């Protein structure tokens, strides 16, 4: 008897909790359009993602001030996937099937996006992904508002080659998919430009690597071979601070060996004394320092919203701004939040970006963006030193990888394919080789 | 002392009921999910099926830890590694099942290998296109790792804290190793984008229900096996090693072999839990090796009550349900709640929920005993009962050995 | 367009006028005219040509505006296109004359524009300044000039260098000048004998710069020159290999000192008291955040004390972490003595709470902790480049270690601590207030973790995840060294550090770390109680 009651009681408790779990979000009275926000608020990625959650809340509040969408108010549903990748999938499922979110804005790392992809495909919903990534993907339900490698890495390398006369390259990255793929693309690109194999040094380090003495010395040695050397850094978030500190302390100046980084933005630099780093480069599609009225207005509104005069803005935030505005416009165009209708309506939608132009959603679910190269300033901001003359279309399948150069994505009918092979004329990748 | 007969009957009955409930759940939930229309009051949404299926895998993992920690006193801080290895073996099978439906359409190589310029399949991927091979590996890889690790560690008499720390080192080393893209296992992204299992789509509700049922049945089997082991003569030895390793050794038993068997078996159980987990969550990546995850497993077990078989299951379900609720409803407070739970359980519920429940039942039973003249309760038992309500900190293990003291 | 042309004319008129009014030379007027061109430079190329033009004048007076330009301190006033050196102060910019440095009032930020610079411009400026500052008053400036000229050899500068060498009185500068001359000689068409001598001079440097110069020279040289260069290169290479090993040892020691700092508090709470203190990393984090708060206060209220910020933060970090440690011991751990594995769970919970608390209070992003000037930069010791912050951290780690050792071995308190650990009941019978000693010991261990945080804030992120990064390594160090033995922790930390750094060049950073972990696991099999195991009955208890 005792055993039975124990078991029953504990099961009841579990059941009650689960029931609470399902019932909890169902209290809202007025009918609203739910927008899911899927960013880690704890764990290792909280450092980057929390700001994006705030950005989404800010954007939704602003939109509601303008009267919402389709006459309804927007309601943000915030969940915390806690930097735990399987939890991302669970939370995505919860947002869509329990909270009935019409679209989800979220994810930062590639692995979190990969983890939720099947969920969005299965439940047919929308994900707006705001971070620069390795490309090699185009999914019907996902909109990539961050940069593809050709919108960040390749222009940066071009800049170094043409403006700084760099001949020798260190490709330093954290050992995960984005740096690996980006470096593969860059290696192929550099070799196509006539750079010899021995003039490229590739180096990978673990996440959160904090002891950079050896690697910085290696870079220094590699750079003293009589040719102009630069470092292309795909080092991830946390490891950057000790890396730059070591660079500064070992006296590597930007004039001698410039470092161009793809993962270092205003937010990361806020945790760093940037005076010794002046002149090192970053490549993004947006800088807080961009001098346009749209940007000034956005920064002022953002600082007002966060009630913090020191809050910085960065590129993934701009990507969310663009993605959110595109979604709003597409929903209004389609007259419904139904995912299928929005997927059809959003292609070709143009919204102003913060750097003074218009970004357009392309049929491959990537957007057009300008590419900016900036030099780090003593105040932690970037100063644009070079900029593409026009907008660059995100190229999901890199032209520099042998297996993807024939692929394109076009989600418009009748093609409606994420990996159409122009060589074979079939949807479904490269096929048998 | 509590009558041995009654206690045994109580425990056995509890096991039987747990198994019965698990089997019933395995049958009923899929029916409620598939047969009833979504607007029916009794309909179980697919979301709940997926979620609970995941919890059941966690429960099996916690149970496997209970076998070594609760009954053998080995606090493994690396059980997540066995879970993840089992998961990877399953993931490799699922990757091979994708065939040419990957984005590049390569019939042999998974997508991540294509864009990382692999020309051919690494040697350790061969065979995983066969389910029987993958199933074997699910058990063999974690089992073998545990065997080799345990073989060295137990023979050198690495015990207590030292053992905990090196199991942590083991899972940490594996974490770093699996993060490496050169391992040929997908690096940080791990294995994902699964299409189907045995030819059924992993996204279909039927498949999901079947996996749920399989998890429930596997857990039921795990409960049964653990119960039989613990109840056997070997189980007595296991507890003897836990409570007084040196004495057991002096009596002529090979303590290291006793431990090695339990450790290996437990790793195999963890591997199976991982294998069931992967198709349900759709991804396996090195994050599962994180030492923090393994510590969390210890917490589930402690919350439910170790050395109780049912306890770890209750703990895993409760903590994970709490996690799901908190990360949705009060994301900022989640870590406070989890941290507070750890502290509260160790301070106020050293025996866990089930253990404390048993203790409380036993006490109230005995208090009631003189009035009701319960046939099972004798006068000698009261002596023990009065000794028990001491501050938690100084609790000695009662005669039944409900709160094992680690060998350290 | 028309407006800017008008402005140009105006600027010219003004400079022209200035030339008349002030008793300056005609040269200066020309310089001012050139400097005024910065206002018209619309892109980097244009700015660079102005820089070249200025440098070509060969007047040391251009150092000021060029140096300011390199620093990004050259401004153009929008109203009259006049060029000034500016210093930002708040919302305003303090303007100064570009040549004389005389103050020229203030302007709001919106009234001036910065003359933009990029890396190639900075390089051009540095090269231009190199030859100009050869005759500077300050030996450091002359040294810098010589070094720049060594890296950018210019055959036309040989005469200037010869003159400078003849005048030079400071030995070290003279050597640098001779090396610069040798580099220039290698690039020139001087006779072979001169070049052979130059090879020797360059080779005497024995460093990477010499190597890269000689490698470049060897590629285009022929005959005996090529042979001499090749010989010099192989000598340099072999000496560099030895230095590289030395460098690895230093890096290993430096990594070891970080490990020692991180682990030493744990050697008390875990090693001496037997509490598996998973919240140890968070104590380190609290120390780092204390440093951040101290620096923040100093920045706003007493900026001139900044170099003292670490010294001020040290006792505070100790107190903060010790107080938290004390609270944890009194509140939680004292109920768990004798159940070491359960302290693991409770302290893990505490660590989660502390992390989230810090995240709530300070936000999830990294916080900036600056390096005081005495912890910035590096110095050369032979071919070793030793960074000051690493050196200070090493000294600091050793100091903490020996102070702690003294406390433990030589003070009555340390004696009581050891007595309680060895035999709690007997210590209690002897009249030692064991609960009090426990609490203080734990507070001591936590406090030491806190001051470790002050040091680690100098080389790592200050974020809520700071502690997580060190906790596993710290446990490995303590377990490897032998629980309960401070010397074990010291030896353990340094041997793991050096091992790691020797594996890293061969195996890479990731594999190196994995190998170290595997080696620790194997080592524990061989010596289940670490490097310096405690002996006796207490061990089995």
Automatic annotation (TrEMBL), chain A:
Leader peptide range in chain numbering: 1-28
Alphabetic keyword roster: Signal
- What Pfam families does this protein's entry cite? Peripla_BP_5
Highest taxon in the source lineage = Bacteria
Fetch the InterPro entries from UniProt: ABC_urea-bd_UrtA, Peripla_BP_I
Q: What is this protein called?
A: Urea ABC transporter substrate-binding protein
From TrEMBL, chain B:
Q: Which GO terms describe its cellular component?
A: plasma membrane
The UniProt GO MF terms for this protein read:
branched-chain amino acid transmembrane transporter activity
Database matches in CDD domains = TM_PBP1_LivM_like
Residue ranges of the region described as Disordered: 366-408
- One family from Pfam that matches here is BPD_transp_2
- Renumbered to this chain, the Acidic residues biased-composition regions fall at 371-382
Subcellular location(s) per record: Cell membrane
The UniProt keyword set, sorted, is:
Cell membrane, Membrane, Transmembrane, Transmembrane helix
- Give the source's domain of life in one word: Bacteria
How does this protein lie in the membrane? Multi-pass membrane protein
Q: Which residues cross the membrane?
A: 15-36, 42-61, 68-90, 131-154, 161-179, 210-230, 258-278, 298-321, 333-354
**Official protein name in the record:** Urea ABC transporter permease subunit UrtC
**Can you name the source organism?**
Kumtagia ephedrae
């Amino acid at each position: 008897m005792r055993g039975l009651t124990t078991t029953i009681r504990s099961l009841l408790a579990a059941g009650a909790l689960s029931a609470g779990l399902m019932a909890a979000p169902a209290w809202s009275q007025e009918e609203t359009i739910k927008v899911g926000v899927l960013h880690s608020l704890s764990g290792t990625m909280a450092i980057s993602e929390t700001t994006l959650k705030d950005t989404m809340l800010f954007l939704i509040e602003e939109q509601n001030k303008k009267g919402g969408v389709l006459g309804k108010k927007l309601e943000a549903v915030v969940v915390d996937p806690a930097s735990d990748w399987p939890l991302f999938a669970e939370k995505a499922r919860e947002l869509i099937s329990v909270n009935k979110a019409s679209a989800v804005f979220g994810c930062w790392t590639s692995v979190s996006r990969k983890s939720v992809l099947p969920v969005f495909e299965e439940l047919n919903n929308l994900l707006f992904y705001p971070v620069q990534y390795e490309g090699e993907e185009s999914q019907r339900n996902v909109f990539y508002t961050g940069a593809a490698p050709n919108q960040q890495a390749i222009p940066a390398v071009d800049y170094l080659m043409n403006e700084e006369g760099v001949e020798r390259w260190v490709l330093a990255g954290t050992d995960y998919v984005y740096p690996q793929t980006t470096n593969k693309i860059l290696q192929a690109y550099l070799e196509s430009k006539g750079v010899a194999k021995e003039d490229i040094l590739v180096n990978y380090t673990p996440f959160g690597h904090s002891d950079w003495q050896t690697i910085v010395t290696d870079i220094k040695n590699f750079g003293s071979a009589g040719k102009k050397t630069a470092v292309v850094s795909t080092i991830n978030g946390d490891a950057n601070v000790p890396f730059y500190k070591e660079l500064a302390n070992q006296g590597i100046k930007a004039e001698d060996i410039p470092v161009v980084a793809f993962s270092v933005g205003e937010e990361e630099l806020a945790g760093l004394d940037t005076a010794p780093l002046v002149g090192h480069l970053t490549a993004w599609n947006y800088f807080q320092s961009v001098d346009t009225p749209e940007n000034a207005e956005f920064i002022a509104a953002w600082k007002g919203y966060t009630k913090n005069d020191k809050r910085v803005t960065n590129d993934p935030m701009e990507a969310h701004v663009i993605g959110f505005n595109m979604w709003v416009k597409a929903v209004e165009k389609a007259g419904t939040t139904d995912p299928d209708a929005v997927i059809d309506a959003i292609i070709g939608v143009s919204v102003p970006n913060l750097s003074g132009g218009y970004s357009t959603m392309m049929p491959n679910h990537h957007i057009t963006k300008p590419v900016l190269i900036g030099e780090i300033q003593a105040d932690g901001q970037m100063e644009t030193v070079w900029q593409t003359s026009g907008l660059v279309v995100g190229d999901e399948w890199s032209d520099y990888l042998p297996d993807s150069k024939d692929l394109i994505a076009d989600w418009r009918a009748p093609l409606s394919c994420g990996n159409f092979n122009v060589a074979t004329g079939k949807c479904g990748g490269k096929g048998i080789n | 002392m509590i009558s041995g007969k009654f206690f045994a009957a109580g425990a056995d009955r509890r096991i039987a009921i747990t198994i019965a409930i698990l089997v019933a759940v395995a049958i009923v939930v899929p029916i409620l999910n598939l047969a009833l229309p979504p607007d029916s009051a009794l309909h179980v949404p697919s979301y709940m099926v997926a979620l609970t299926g995941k919890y059941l895998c966690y429960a099996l993992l916690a149970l496997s830890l209970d076998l070594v920690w609760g009954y053998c006193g080995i606090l493994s801080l690396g059980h997540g590694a066995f879970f993840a290895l089992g998961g990877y073996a399953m993931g490799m099978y699922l990757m091979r099942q994708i065939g040419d439906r990957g984005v590049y359409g390569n019939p042999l190589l998974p997508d991540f290998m294509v864009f990382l310029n692999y020309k051919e399949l690494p040697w350790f991927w061969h065979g995983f296109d066969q389910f029987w091979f993958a199933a074997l590996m699910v058990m063999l890889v974690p089992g073998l790792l545990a065997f080799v690790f345990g073989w060295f560690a137990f023979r050198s008499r690495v015990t207590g804290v030292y053992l905990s720390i090196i199991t942590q080192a083991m899972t940490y080393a594996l974490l770093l190793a699996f993060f490496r893209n050169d391992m040929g296992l997908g690096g940080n992204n791990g294995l994902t984008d699964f299409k189907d299992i045995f030819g059924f789509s992993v996204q279909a509700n039927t498949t999901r229900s079947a996996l749920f049922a399989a998890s429930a049945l596997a857990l039921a089997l795990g409960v049964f096996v653990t119960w039989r082991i613990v109840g056997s003569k070997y189980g007595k030895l296991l507890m003897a090693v836990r409570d007084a390793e040196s004495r057991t050794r002096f009596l002529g038993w090979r303590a290291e072999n006793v431990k090695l068997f339990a450790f290996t078996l437990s790793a195999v159980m963890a591997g199976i839990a991982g294998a069931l987990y992967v198709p349900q969550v759709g991804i396996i990546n090195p994050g599962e090796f994180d030492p923090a995850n393994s510590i969390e497993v210890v917490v589930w077990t402690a919350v439910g009550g170790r050395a109780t078989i049912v306890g770890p299951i209750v703990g895993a379900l409760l903590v994970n349900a709490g996690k799901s609720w908190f990360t949705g409803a009060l994301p900022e407070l989640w870590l406070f709640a989890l941290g507070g739970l750890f502290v509260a359980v160790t301070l106020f519920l050293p025996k866990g929920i089930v253990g404390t429940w048993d203790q409380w039942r036993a006490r109230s039973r005995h208090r009631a005993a003189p009035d009701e003249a319960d046939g099972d309760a004798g006068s000698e038992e009261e002596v023990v009962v009065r000794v028990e309500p001491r501050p938690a900190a100084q609790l000695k293990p009662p005669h039944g050995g409900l709160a094992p003291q680690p060998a350290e | 367009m028309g407006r800017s042309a008008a402005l140009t004319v105006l600027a010219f008129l003004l400079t022209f006028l200035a030339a008349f009014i002030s008793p300056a030379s005609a040269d200066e007027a020309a310089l001012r005219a050139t400097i005024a061109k910065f206002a018209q430079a619309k892109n980097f190329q244009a700015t660079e040509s102005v820089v070249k033009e200025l440098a070509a004048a060969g007047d040391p007076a251009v150092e000021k505006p060029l140096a300011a330009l390199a620093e990004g301190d050259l401004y153009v006033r929008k109203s009259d296109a006049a060029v000034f050196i500016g210093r930002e102060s708040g919302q305003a910019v303090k303007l100064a004359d570009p040549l004389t440095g005389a103050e020229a009032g203030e302007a709001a930020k919106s009234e001036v524009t910065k003359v933009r610079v990029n890396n190639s411009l900075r390089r051009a400026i540095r090269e231009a300044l190199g030859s100009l500052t050869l005759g500077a008053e300050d030996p450091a400036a002359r040294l810098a000039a010589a070094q720049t000229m060594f890296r950018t050899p210019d055959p036309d500068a040989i005469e200037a260098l010869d003159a400078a060498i003849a005048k030079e009185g400071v030995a070290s500068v003279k050597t640098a000048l001779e090396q610069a001359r040798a580099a220039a000689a290698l690039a020139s068409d001087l006779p072979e004998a001169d070049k052979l001598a130059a090879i020797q001079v360059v080779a005497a440097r024995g460093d990477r710069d010499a190597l890269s110069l000689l490698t470049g020279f060897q590629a285009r040289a022929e005959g005996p020159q090529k042979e001499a260069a090749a010989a010099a290169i192989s000598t340099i290479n072999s000496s560099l290999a030895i230095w590289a090993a030395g460098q690895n040892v230093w890096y290993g020691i430096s990594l070891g000192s970080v490990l020692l700092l991180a682990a030493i508090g744990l050697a008390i709470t875990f090693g001496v008291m037997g509490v598996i203190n998973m919240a140890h990393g968070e104590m380190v984090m609290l120390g780092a955040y204390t440093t951040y708060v101290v620096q923040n206060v100093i920045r706003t209220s007493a900026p001139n004390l900044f170099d003292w910020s670490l010294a001020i933060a040290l006792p505070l970090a100790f107190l903060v972490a010790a107080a938290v440690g004390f609270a944890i011991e009194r509140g939680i751990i004292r109920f768990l003595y004798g159940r070491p594995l359960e302290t693991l769970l409770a302290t893990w919970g505490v660590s989660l709470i502390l992390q989230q608390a810090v995240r709530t209070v300070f936000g999830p992003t990294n916080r900036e902790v600056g390096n005081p000037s005495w912890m910035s930069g590096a110095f050369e010791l032979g071919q070793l480049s030793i960074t000051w912050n690493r050196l200070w951290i090493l000294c600091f780690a050793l100091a903490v270690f020996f102070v702690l050792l003294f406390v433990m071995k030589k003070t009555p308190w340390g004696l009581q601590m050891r007595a309680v650990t060895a035999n709690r009941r007997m210590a209690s019978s002897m009249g030692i207030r064991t609960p009090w000693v426990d609490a203080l010991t734990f507070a001591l261990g936590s406090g030491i973790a806190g001051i470790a945080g002050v040091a680690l804030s100098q080389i790592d992120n200050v974020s809520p995840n700071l502690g997580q990064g060190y906790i596993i390594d710290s446990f490995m160090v303590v377990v490897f060294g032998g629980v309960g033995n401070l010397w074990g922790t010291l030896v353990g930390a340094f041997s793991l550090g050096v091992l790691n750094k020797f594996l890293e060049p061969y195996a890479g950073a990731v594999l190196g770390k994995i190998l170290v972990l595997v080696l620790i696991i194997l080592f524990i099999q061989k010596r289940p109680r670490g490097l310096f195991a405690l002996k006796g009955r207490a061990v089995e208890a």
